[in-house]
Specification:
Arc Repressor Mutant, subunit A; alpha+beta; about 240 residues; DNA-binding; Chorismate lyase; homodimer; about 25% helix; globular; 10 strands; six-stranded antiparallel beta sheet; two-stranded antiparallel sheet
DNA sequence: CTACCTTACTTGTATATACAAGTACAAATA
DNA sequence: TATTTGTACTTGTATATACAAGTAAGGTAG
């Protein structure tokens, strides 16, 4: 299979993003001006601006006419939900993943309230459950359902340390571009009580998500339960 | 004060957006092609593409090379949170607002965990509490805190039926461009129990938000409590 | 009838260019 | 000294153009 060439505006986006994530550019810093970026990367202004526009959309920078591109702190998360501790900041904390139900193929029963089409229904569904822990305390419990359309060897892959998004992107050229979500506060039922080791009536955040990808008509679904008593979900909008 | 001219890509964006919102273009329809839009509005492709890019970012359309721009259903909400009933769809339902604490000027005590700078602190804070009801049942309870920087006559305005965002935009040229948020599931304390008429231990969604505006360095803060037992928060990401 | 190819149309990427408008700072002015 | 002006630099808007690449549909050869 031919490797799709990465467009140059995307390369610049990734480059600048990495520099901000690794702390080379800190919050409040100014990025090099558009003209400087043009010269440094042998690109023209529209191309550079496209990369910067993407960084604005993702919340990495703010731009001001006459001033420049101002580096922001936390970016807005696409897909991956960021966490912030009520006391400590995450980062030093140890994040682990425990597979509750290994990926296996079942038939579609539901998709958390989202519609699925006939094609997806006939192909079956890859089902998995994971528990994510911070410092050995469970914080996320999620159920993921993926239509079984041409994803060879998927069920035998390991999902321990690598993110699902990364595997889909690297091995199947599937990128999550956005989606739909429903958010609710609920009280823990028996199953959730067991997973999170909490008492009855403990408040839990529940998010149902439909993830849309770059492959036309290919979506997958996930239901996330989150114990927010020690960590809040944070993000930009 | 001179009225700022609206750029043409934004005019086109608003126009297309309106056509989708009022149902002229329905879910699954194709928008006119870029070249057709160019001809119809006397613009060039880069300008038209900018408007379409914005519609993609807001979740109104998906685009596919070789095919066209496909109209989507619900858009993603900036600032205003959309609701979806578990049984009925919202729309026929009656939405009302009840002012619990009228806008008044107090001193800053907190900003829901977000930082405020010295300038904002010295100017005082406009404080208000509102309750929003659907079919006479309370669903949202929110506290808003706005730095009192040059907002003449703000405390005497009415917030009954008009949205805060609309008033800020129309009268003070303040547009919310994005922000930061923290989401948690909590159980109702006494005050919330009273407002929502729910029992002890009822799960409530709590969102703390910092809203950033087009005026540099001007942000305001809001804390939203939401009873999600009948309505989920929905949105695109 | 089926499989392949061509063609016309679509969006994607990229360059080159021009002027408008906002910001910061230094120089000139009152 | 305090204020205004000018200037250089920044991002914002817009046009014109070219070619690449994906999609759908119709024609053609087998």
């Amino acid at each position: 299979m031919a490797v799709k060439e990465v467009p140059s505006y995307r390369r610049l986006y990734e480059k600048l993003r990495k520099l901000m994530e690794d702390g080379t550019y800190k919050r409040g810093d100014l990025l090099p001006s558009e003209n400087e970026l043009c010269a440094a990367h042998h690109l023209t202004r529209p191309t550079v601006r496209k990369a910067l526009d993407m960084l604005v959309n993702d919340g990495f920078i703010l731009r001001h006419q006459g001033l420049g591109s101002i580096v922001q702190g936390q970016p807005k998360g696409i897909g991956i939900l960021s966490l912030s501790g009520t006391t400590s900041a995450i980062g030093q904390d140890i994040l682990t993943t425990r597979i509750i139900v290994k990926p296996n193929i079942i038939s579609w029963e539901q998709a958390f309230g989202f519609e699925i089409n006939e094609n997806e229904k006939s192909m079956g569904c890859i089902y998995m459950e994971r528990l994510r822990l911070i410092n050995d305390r469970p914080v996320f419990y999620d159920i993921t359902m993926i239509p079984n359309l041409n994803l060879p060897r998927f069920t035998s892959r390991t999902f321990e340390n690598r993110s699902l998004f990364e595997i889909l992107r690297k091995h199947y050229q599937l990128e999550v571009k956005g989606g739909e979500q429903k958010i609710q506060a609920i009280t823990a039922d028996e199953r959730i009580q067991k997973h999170f080791e909490v008492r009855k009536n403990h408040p839990i955040l529940r998010i149902d998500r439909k993830m849309e990808t770059n492959r036309m008509g290919f979506s997958f679904f996930s239901q996330i339960y989150c114990n927010t008593s020690d960590y809040s979900l944070i993000g930009r909008f």
